Amino acid sequence: LGYDRQVELFLDPDDARSQKVQLYEQLRSAIVEGRLTPGDRLTPSRIVAADLRISRATVTEAYGRLGAEGYIEGRSGGGSRVSAAPRQVRPRSRVAALQPTRRAAGIEPYALDPTAEVAFDFRPGHLDPGLFPVAAWRRCVVRTLNRPPGSYDDPRGTPELRAALASWVARSRGVAAMPEDTVVTSGAGQAIDLVARVVADPGATVAVEEPGYPPVLSLLRSQGLRVVGVPVDDHGIVVEAIPPRARLVYVTPSHQYPLGMVMGRRRRLELLQWAARSGAAIVEDDYDSEFRHTARPLEPLQLLDRDGRVIYVGTFSKSLSAGLRVGFLVAPRTLLPALCAVRQAVDWCPPPATQRALTHFIVDGYLDQHLRRTRRSYAKRHRLMREALDHYLPTGYRRLPAEAGLHVTATGPADPADPDLAATLRQHGLLMSSLRRTYAFSPPAAGLLLGYAGLPTTAVVPAVRALGSALAGSDHPGGAP
Ligand SMILES: Cc1ncc(COP(=O)(O)O)c(C=O)c1O
Hints:
The chain is an alpha/beta fold. It is built from 16 helices and 16 strands. It has helices at 19-32, 45-52, 56-68, 102-105, 134-142, 159-173, 187-199, 214-222, 265-278, 301-304, 317-321, 336-347, 352-363, 366-392, 421-426, 460-473; strands at residues 72-75, 79-82, 120-121, 182-185, 205-210, 226-233, 236-237, 248-251, 281-285, 310-315, 327-330, 398-399, 407-411, 430-431, 433-434, 447-451. The protein has an eight-stranded mixed sheet, sandwiched between helices. Strands 12-13-16-15 form a four-stranded antiparallel sheet. The protein has a two-stranded antiparallel sheet with strand order 1-2. The longest helix is centred in the C-terminal third of the chain and has 27 residues, at 366-392. The radius of gyration is 28 Å and the shape is globular. The two termini are 54 Å apart. 39% of the residues are buried.
């Protein structure tokens, strides 16, 4: 790495061992446990002696013993270095006194580890790195570099970014947003986390869509909330099935995750009326609304809301990059003081430098430009994906309609006893999410979530062809097309 690892040395005046032995044993442990590796230079004895306020002879004697035993070797002019002799590294065994709570241990990790040979990556949530506007983003980042990163700042985010976001989301989505009601967050995930902390106490009941987005279920459960899954039909969440005592309902109205339908206007109004009667909050996750291919956009719940019950959540994870970790929420004014105080307690504020770069990116028109370009590209991939699925999916599988977003869901095969298909397909180098994993409260349907944003346009048809062959060849009912 171009620098030498150093270990901090300690001397304990109450230790019965001599100072020399203490130094020798600490350094030997560091070498044996791999904290110091061959070639690392030891701190010169003169400096160690000065730092620890001991005689230099004590240090040179400790070094001498390490040298005599072959742990280190002296080099002319280069001081002592850890010797290159092969040595069995024995990492210090980790004693496991602490265990997570049952609740924390029950949270399932979500990430899919890519296998070594990935032929085609259909994972929803993955974008084509080739479409990221590297030059424009670099220009925006460079403009932030001529000043220090900043200090503890406004927990809602900088006023400039909040103003840019409020005006952008009002213009592009019709959300009734003012800068003072807008909070910049670390992705949609943190926005949902903050809202839940502010409107529901541990033990309270909250409702999510079933099937739904697993990370949100995990985060609500990790807060000690009682999460209830509410079925969805062709129009979205089934309002009469929401428990009357639910304090919060999490929904994805513009593109239900994972099934893809759009919540109809009548259903939106019904949900708002239910929330008014029961006093609950509604979290509207508009995670991929920037991409709609056939449907005309419907008014967000947040705009239809007349009495301040809807918290609108947006993210840049699909529209720009998930690695930026930037999202935002627009909340009723009554919640803002508590949202700010909790945000400050958790991690104080969003990183000011990222916020400044993103502000330039929005205000200078790069975001609109990028979205025009990616919308064209993703619309084409969406069309190719639909056509290819209709052609290559074996019988027994069915593509669900998807009018928006960046993935298509296919159900099948019909036999519920089938093993997890996504795991089988991974062995063919095909990465995707499993529909089964999105069910947490009821018997799951088998199927696949096929993202097309991470597949270059020219790869879409070959990828679906490979999927079709893998499905036809696997031991599932249905067979070849
Ligand atoms: C339903 C849903 N909400 C939100 C997100 C994005 O979350 P974040 O902004 O925390 O990356 C995703 C990403 O795949 C999603 O599928």
